[in-house]
Amino acid sequence: MDTPYNVAGSPQAIAPARSRFAVIGRYWTALLDWELRVQIRDRLTNLSDRELRDIGIARGEIDYVASHRATDPRGAVYRP
Description:
The structure is a single chain. The protein is an all-alpha fold and 80 residues long. The protein has helices spanning 11-45, 49-55, 62-67.
């Protein structure tokens, strides 16, 4: 017995379109993340050494702080 298949509604026909949108979404997220890192780096670079010291980072740590926003660089130095 032959069963007719609806090709337009099958998961195989929809999956490539979803994966394309997922790839575009990942690129968009990466672009937004990169833009945020640039903004953070610019703002921290414009601070004076005293202002940087007040928030607990050194000028040499600016790139690390901008790239690793979820990590507190002071946690490695000051243990409670």
